[in-house]
Design brief:
By secondary structure, the protein is an alpha/beta fold. It contains eight helices and 17 strands. Helix 1 links the parallel strand 1 and strand 2. Helix 1 runs parallel beside helix 3. Bound molecules: flavin-adenine dinucleotide.
Length: 368
């Protein structure tokens, strides 16, 4: 059986930065269920707004990784227009996002990881289970042709995103009755793409309780605009989305027939309470660990920075318990950050509190 120092489920931002961090010293196998060698645009892309916030920009800067121009997506805009349909009010806020093409970004990060000598990848291959032992972990894989195989590793990491199988198995199969339960709410994120004659000069955040108790967005992207909403699972998602589109058109956005539609399950975490970093020789990073903002659903920065923290802990830790302690310490300040975002979310998603904040004009900018 093949023996690795580290097997990583998932080649998203968390998996790639983790692999890059340890790749000089560890023998690493990344396992990705998507085809990462297919020409760009031919595979089903991730459901993502593709906005890199300043924290994500800092992680890239700390690795000395400047963004290549093919990752950038036009237009680059620096304002968010927030429309509050519940209170019939609106405000503009300055934001320093970088607008990116998500698939190109993920491929670029992965290529950076694969430049390290110790890192290899198998794609079109799914992690279907794992069995932890005191000294190693056996990871079961299933290839596209249905064949299964097992690999053995010192450490195993689930960087497999919001629907993480690794996390589910850890919590359902390998956790005792006294271990904490981690609450997470499930939403459906629906996005439609529309052709536009002129790029929007801002991003749009839309708040409407008739659509969702979370939020909806519009993002200009390469001659098109994406309209998206995160709607509680089980509610009438389609009807609510159509209501949102009607609202947007009443606001003058002129959205015609969509040219593309994508849906995904989105997990809305409850801040630090939803964070599970794993245990023993099995760890979680990025969205799989619940590291995502509960106010904005931005998760790329958390994915990359937790990948780096875990990588450093794996390199420095002498035992699994030591690795776990170092990882927990490294991520501690992120949990505080998530707590602050949860408080922000309480204000943002409560129509009364949001209405008061809009009235004060706090942190908003004058665009006239
Ligand atoms: C609609 C929407 C819009 C968003 N917009 C933004 C945004 O603008 N900015 C931002 O910062 N964040 C945004 N996010 C959040 C962001 O996309 C995630 O937080 C981020 O991708 C997390 O990175 P990750 O590496 O943890 O997981 P992912 O990027 O999800 O990567 C996980 C990888 O694991 C693979 N995988 C999954 N299961 C298996 C398995 N069993 N075996 C093998 N491989 C597996 C997947 O194919 C995937 O490539 C958005 C999310 C949604 C749903």
């Amino acid at each position: 059986m093949e023996q690795y120092d580290l097997v990583i489920a998932g080649a998203g931002p968390a998996g790639s930065i983790l692999a890059k961090t340890v790749g000089k010293k560890f023998r690493v196998l990344m396992v990705e269920m998507r085809n990462v060698h297919a020409p760009l645009g031919t595979t089903r892309e991730k459901s993502c707004g593709g906005m890199l916030n300043t924290s994500a920009q800092k992680v890239l800067a700390s690795f000395g990784m400047p963004l290549p121009k093919e990752v950038l997506q036009s237009p680059q805009v620096f304002t968010v227009r927030a429309i509050d349909y519940d209170n019939h009010d609106e405000r503009y806020y300055q934001k320093q996002y970088v607008n990116i093409d998500r698939e190109t970004f993920d491929r670029w990060l992965l290529a950076e990881a694969l430049m390290e000598d110790g890192v290899e990848i198998v794609d079109n291959t799914k992690v279907i289970g794992f069995t932890p032992h005191p000294d190693y972990v056996d990871v079961q894989l299933r290839k596209e042709n249905g064949e299964t195989e097992s690999v053995r590793t010192r450490y195993f990491v689930g960087a497999d995103g919001g629907g993480s199988l690794v996390r589910r198995h850890l919590e359902e199969k390998f956790s005792g009755p006294d271990e904490p339960k981690y609450p997470i709410q499930r939403y459906v994120s629906l996005q439609q793409w529309f052709e536009v004659e002129e790029d929007l000069p801002y991003y749009v955040a839309l708040f409407d309780q008739k659509v969702t108790d979370y939020y909806s967005w519009m993002i200009p992207k390469n001659g098109q605009v994406i309209l998206g909403a995160a709607i509680p699972e089980g509610k009438d998602v389609r009807k609510r989305f159509e209501h949102l589109k009607k609202r947007a058109n009443q606001s003058g956005f002129n959205l015609g027939e969509p040219v593309k539609e994508r849906g995904a399950i989105l997990l809305r975490p409850y801040g630090p309470m939803s964070v599970n970093l794993g245990k023993g020789r099995v760890f979680l990073a990025g969205e799989a660990a619940g590291l995502i903002s509960s106010s904005s659903e931005e998760g790329i920065s958390y994915a990359m920075s937790s990948g780096r923290e875990l990588g450093e802990a794996l390199l420095e830790g002498k035992t699994p318990a030591d690795v776990e302690a170092k990882y927990r310490k490294g991520v501690r300040h992120k949990k505080w950050g998530l707590a602050v975002k949860s408080l922000k979310a309480i204000v943002m998603y409560n129509p009364v509190l949001r209405g008061l904040v809009f009235k004060t004009g706090l942190l908003s900018m004058d665009v006239k």
